[in-house]
Amino acid sequence: MDPRFRGDDTAIGIGDVAMTPPSPLLRSGILTAVIALLLDQASKLWLLYVFDIGRRGAVAVTPFFDLVLAWNTGISYGWFSQSGPTGQAILIAVKAVAVVALAIWMAKSQTRLATVALGLIIGGAIGNAIDRFAWGAVVDFALLHVDIGGKTYNWYVFNLADVAIVAGVAALLYDSFFIVPAAKAP
Known about the structure:
- The chain has 186 residues and is of the alpha+beta class.
- 53% of the residues lie in helices and 18% in strands.
- A 4-stranded antiparallel sheet has the order 3-4-5-6.
């Protein structure tokens, strides 16, 4: 046995570097990120290749929700959609830096809500980055709308990755404002 470790050590050795396994708190964030990513990608692949949303066009699901196919080459609300391949590469690079920063934050997080929230944001960001890398655009498909006085008001078209990101940000805000850290608790 390696003299640097005792029999009860839980470190995993990789070469000369010892790493401890992730804490249960961090594992919950990683699992959340993986689930968000898988649900996002599965929904997009199913809609594109099984449901064939491109051929069907808009499909009314409820009086306020339609399935539509939109290729978003920009960022939120289609901003920077005319940026071309160089802009796409820059967006992917910025997203990669953001995911690394969020992962570091997640690893240091002290509450389960913040950890899961960061996992949602990371999973959603990676899901949309995969689309951008694979197709040069993000696959959006959910459209919420309301008819008032004979006029239709549409929300922007979004996907499950966007839902995960928004839910993660909302949970982070809740955690920041309403969850009392254990160190500050009376």
